[in-house]
Structures are given as C-alpha cells and as structure tokens.
Fold Aldehyde dehydrogenase.
Amino acid sequence: RMSREQKAVECARKAFLTGRSKPLEHRIRQLKNLQRFLLEREKEIAEAIKKDLNKSEAGTQLYETLGLEGEIVLAVKKLAEWVAPRPVEKNLLTISDTVYIQPEPLGVVLIIGAWNYPWAVTIQPLIGAIAAGNAAVVKPSEVCVHTAKVMEDLLPAYIDKELYPVVTGGVSETQELLRQRFDHVFYTGNSMVGKLVMEAAAKHLTPITLELGGKSPCYIDKNCDIPIACRRVTWGKYSNCGQTCIAPDYILCEPSIQDRVLEEIKKSIKAFYTEDPKTCPDYGRIINQRHFKRIMAMTEDSTIAIGGDSDESTCYIAPTVLKDVQVNSKVMQEEIFGPLLPILTVSGVDEAINFINKGEKPLALYIFSPDDKVIKKVIAETSSGGVLANDCLVHYSVSALPFGGVGNSGMGSYHGKFSFDNLSHLRGCLIKQLKMEGVNDMRYPPHTAKKLFWARFFILKNPDLGWLGRMTLLAIIAVVAAVVLQVRGKEETFLISTVRKRLQWRCILFEVEL
Ligand SMILES: NC(=O)c1ccc[n+]([C@@H]2O[C@H](COP(=O)([O-])OP(=O)(O)OC[C@H]3O[C@@H](n4cnc5c(N)ncnc54)[C@H](O)[C@@H]3O)[C@@H](O)[C@H]2O)c1
Ligand SMILES: CCCCCCCC=O
C-alpha cells in the first residue's frame, strides 16, 4: 500500500509530466494566486503564528509575508527575462554558432521548512520552485502546529494542489518523503538533520540546497557609534526572541568598550520591549519547553549582566546579555537560537578575526566600524554565508544578494533570481550549422603539428573584438575554411601559407593587446 507521502510525490510527478507547470502564463498565475493567498488569509496566518510563536500581527507581516510578497512581485516582473535563453560569450571556434544557456525546470522539488519563520522559509523556496516551472511537495515544520495546519488547509484552495501538494508531519513523515525520488531537495533547519537529508538525497543522486545555521559573530569596533551599533544589534538579536538563523550569536569587542556596549543594549531593550518585556506584544516566546531548557542551560557558567528572568510555563526568557564570557563556556559551544547575547572580549580586530576563523564558517558575519579598512579587512580575512557591515539581518531582504551558507552553515543559495537559477537546470545549448566543415579539420585525425597550431589559435584566443572585429574574423575563418577545403590532401599552397602568416601576425597582435 502506498503511503500518504508516496501518493503526494506521485501526484506531483504526474502533474509535472503533463507539462502544465512550464508555460510562463501558468507560473505567473500561480505566483499571483500565492500572493492573493497571503493577502486574503492574512488574518489566519497571523493568528496561527501568534499561537505558535507569540509573534504580533505587524511582526508577522514585517518579517514573514512582506518579504514573500516582494519576491513574488519581483518574480512576476522578471520571469520572462529569467526563462529566456541567455546568450553567452563565444570563442573563435563558435563564432558563427548559436550558443546560449536555456534554464529548464528540474522536475519535482521537495521543500522541507523550519519553524522559526515558518512562512518565510517554506514559501520562499516555493516561489522559486514555481517560477522555475517545477512541481513541489511542501513539508512545513511540525513544530509550528497551527501554521502547518493553515498551510495544509488553505494553500490548496489557491495554488494547483496536484503540482504543489502540502504534506504535514514530523520526523517519520519527513524520512518517508526523503526515501522518495526527487529532482531537488531544499531543506531549511539545523546542520545535524542537514547531514541526514544529504545522506538520503545521495541515494538518488538528488541535488540539494541546505539552508542551515550556526554561530554568527558580531564584531564591534571601539571607534564606532556605540549607541547606534547596539540598537541595531539589539534588534537583530531579540527579534523573534533570538530564534533567527542570522541573529548575531555573540559579540566580540575590546574590554574598554564592554561596559558602554552593555549600557546601550540595556537602553535599547527598554526602548523596544519596555521595562517588562514579558507583557510587551512585540517580544516573542521560545517555541517549546525543550528549547527553553536547552537555552536556559547555556546560562549556567556565565555572568548575567542584563535580563536573565524566565518562566518555563510560558516559555518566556527575557532579553539577556552575558558578559566576560569564556570561549569554553556552555553558551559558546553551539548556536544559541534564543535571547542570550554573550560578550567576549578581544584585543582588537586581529584577535577577532582569528577567533572567527577557528570556528565553523557562519551563516552571517556582522562588523560594526566607521572605518572602511577595518570592514574590508574582516571581509578579506574571513568567510561566511553573507556579511553585513553596520547593521543586522537586513541583507536577508535584498533579493539581489544570494542568501545561503557556506561549509557548516549550508550549501546553495536563493532569493530573487538566485532561487530561480538554483531550482532550474541551466542547460548549455550550442547550435551549429552543417556548413564550414573545413574549420573542423584541425580536430580530426590524423593529428599533426600544423593542426595543433590552428587548434591553439582558435581555442586559446578569445578576444573581445566588438561587432566589426567579429565580422572580420568571420570573414577570415570563412577564407581559411574555403582554402583548407580546397587544398585538403594536397601540399600546403602559397595561398594558405600567406593566410597562416597573416593569422600568426594577428595572433601576436592579440597577445600584445591581451
Ligand atoms: N539558513 C536558513 O535560511 C535558516 C532559516 C531558518 C532556520 N535555520 C536554522 O534551522 C535551525 C532551527 O531549525 P530546526 O532544525 O530546529 O527546525 P525543525 O525542527 O523545524 O526542523 C526542520 C525540518 O526538518 C525536519 N526534521 C527534523 N528532524 C528530522 C529528521 N531526523 N529527519 C528528517 N527530517 C527531520 C522537520 O520536520 C522540519 O520540517 C537553526 O539552526 C537555524 O539557524 C536556517
Ligand atoms: C528582515 C529579517 C528577516 C529574517 C528572516 C530570517 C530567516 C531565518 O531564520
């Protein structure tokens, strides 16, 4: 008997094979329906997230659905351009051919979402999958019970439910899905499960995107505007109660500014979330008691400088800052994913860079400094999925930037056109004419030194000649082809040696130019 998951995959595959996901009009219609869903079901979406994560209605729009709408609007506007053949640079050998990249759908994509921004991280890959002409099986995180239910119940009324089925469930359902054959798996979540996803996908040689997390460092330079830096860091850290993949995980700064940093963060916490964040509608809750316990245990061996209050029954943890934190303390052993902000002191930017480079490559890296040299130095001497200077989180909302990790923080990237390209096969196409056979002589056996000379010339020279130059070259190639055809099998004639000498001269000239 087929499982529910198998049936969903088979249904999506069958629908994909009808070819209806491919026409541009279909993709645009589905994307617009998705946008209509976000607008018409705003209330249900907000209510579910309020129950799951205590996010406010405005917060849900700001951090989740607004970005999705922006991505849909962009895809609808640009899709004709994205799907079109992309002409590429030609070399001398392909100068008279049609050479281009044709993006084509991959097939059926599996999207496995996480709970922390359940709409943003589940629907954003779906936008890419639809835009690229794929079918997609959507598996929201079971941890956000109410949101998963809204997705399962309401989404099929708006978008093609055979092409884009929603399958709910937890670990065993996801594992059953992963046993099926897909054309791409797009997973968002923690690195440990990321490895399991990769292992499962390897069985079918299915390509994957892994949107993972990790400890994203934040270096604050002593010369920067500390009140502004701290306000931005406070926002980046405590939004969604620190349960953000790109939240600044910890601060690195010189000991001389630690107290000022603490003072300014304290002021910002009060300004954003009042004296009593517990009663503030804009301050979230920890997703469940398992995570509550995990986060609270991290405070055990560090000094709490700000906050520290908690309430297990409501999964509340106050915005908390830990000072003089040691490298081997509990809070520095794994991604915090909660409202704790450790401060580690370093002697300066060099020590900060060394520290960052000793850890896994993070998803985001933050630098606060008024000095462009300091910013460029950190960028040049470290690696991370993305890097942002003098702010937090906002690089996520720039569709023109690829969003994704590197190393332990993930592989592959998306947003905007990157989503489209990531979920497309970029097919290399070359269309030749059955003419000009003489030009090919140099690659056919018997191989000779003379043929090699021509092969070197045609393959290694790739000058940017402009239109006139290309036409001249085309004419030369046509002459060479005609001559080669004429003299093939005969001794080298005076004519060919003259052409050859001329080309040799051009060759030298190109070398001088290049
Ligand atoms: N890079 C990003 O865009 C991004 C976005 C959000 C979260 N994250 C990262 O995700 C992590 C938090 O998410 P999470 O992992 O707690 O989310 P989660 O518990 O919701 O798990 C993610 C998905 O994996 C599935 N899953 C869980 N265990 C599984 C197993 N054993 N086998 C197969 N599937 C399984 C779940 O059903 C869920 O759909 C953090 O590390 C965070 O940084 C990354
Ligand atoms: C503008 C900030 C949005 C942050 C969304 C992050 C998604 C990953 O956790």
Remarks:
- The chain is about 45% helix and 15% strand.
- Residues 112-116, 121, 139, 141-143, 170-171, 174-175, 188-190, 193, 196, 211-213, 245, 335, 337, 363, 405, 410 surround nicotinamide-adenine-dinucleotide (ligand 1) (CB under 6 Å).
- The chain has a mean pLDDT of 93.
- The first strand starts at residue 86 and ends at 87.
